[in-house]
Amino acid sequence: MDISTYLEPVILEEFDLSANTGRFRISEVIDTYADKHIFPDLENVDIAIIGVGDDRATLNKGCDNAPNEVRRWFYGLFSHWNNFHIADIGNIIRGHQVEDTYFALKEVVSELLKNNIVTLIIGGGQDLTYANYLAYENIGRIINIASVDPVFDLGHDEHELNNKSYLSHIILHQPNFLFNFTNIGYQTYFVDQDSLVLMKNLYFDTNRLGNVKANMEEVEPMVRDADILSIDISCIKRGDAPAVDKAMPNGFSGDEMCRICRYAGMSDKLTSIGFYELNPSFDENGQAAHLYAQMMWYFLDGFSNRKNDFPESDNQNYIKFNVQVDNFEEELIFLKSKKTDRWWMMVSAEDMISQKYKRHQYVPCSYDDYQTALNQEIPDRWWKVQQKLM
Fold this sequence. Notes:
This protein is of the alpha/beta class. It folds into two domains: 301 residues, Ureohydrolase domain (Arginase, Chain A); 72 residues, no CATH class. The chain has twelve helices and 14 strands. The strands form two sheets. Strands 1, 2, 3, 4, 5, 6, 7, 8, 9 and 10 form a ten-stranded mixed β-sheet that branches. A four-stranded antiparallel β-sheet has the order 11-12-13-14. Strand 9, helix 9 and strand 10 form a beta-alpha-beta unit. Helix 2 crosses helix 10 and helix 3 crosses helix 4. The longest helix has 17 residues.
């Protein structure tokens, strides 16, 4: 498929790069689609950046201008890696209807996935997560999604797809390719009780902001379990990212978000990440755009440290721990990587139908989960996955 038909070049002349050249800045090492007659050769590309300037399904009008504002800062950062190749393949051509933009993004991302290229999306509204999800349907892959967001984006009108209801449309979409959804950092005073009950009944993972900030190390297995990471800029406190109307006084700090993005980059499972809802008209001196650029940089830094560390294909590099919990017939099996010291739990499923979920039987966890089992308690992560596989 020729995905260039869905994309338009980046106009580099809009960026002031003349003073930022030399010493391996990203603008010099990235292969950018800047000439409509010369599309980057993707054969040896590991990561592709896509801009999507569409704000028609969000009340946050103006976020369509974010892609180039983020690039303006991103291109001036220094590259410290030589073990992967990155291309900026331009911006999705805005369709006549927002559904046309969704279709174009879905087709581009699915083609990149087929070629084992990790996709980095700069939005636009967070509703684009729905189009990103559809790309995995195109290749028949059952996936997990993680979202860093102060709310769940379930919406109230099942017929209207927008940045506040995209998750409901993913859940209700048939055929369904969503195995698990993890929210990171919801703020309870913005979430109604019915939404909390629904997430619990679906065995989805919800993590309050205060709990996450108190133990940031626990974010790593949350992100490591995801195929898609979707980030809403409103998850960041206003002091660090003043780039949305009614920005939040509470939220993650900039350095915490950079840490989360580095975790995402390090995950061998994660194949796409989206940065959404940044509105340059509310930004102050490009502060939030600069932060998004740094978060992208940390994602790349994490990617440079991937270790091909996933137990499904190779059990030789893992130490196996069996834990017997009192009054529980099944032994709990933990795996610890010899390469990275990271932990997984194995959740069995005897039903042959569940073989399509085989990849999800290896559940990223932490040393705390292992300690929980040693203390004769079943970790929550194990229970939730077991319920899905039954």
